[in-house]
Amino acid sequence: MPLRMRVHEREPIGLALRRFKKLLERSGIQKELRKRKYYEKPCEARRRAQLRKISTIRKGKVVPRKP
Prior knowledge:
By secondary structure, the chain is mainly α. It has three helices and no strands.
């Protein structure tokens, strides 16, 4: 999925760069690159997700559902 950004005439380069960074952030490309930088075993990913869930519950952000 190619990203396109048009730089307007007489637009300062700093402003165009800021718009480009926002575009990358919104598209999720940077997040995906960071995620793929190193290989993570599936069991490690599940463990990390479980720990994130537990810490969220401890902080009291989400009330756990009863089954």
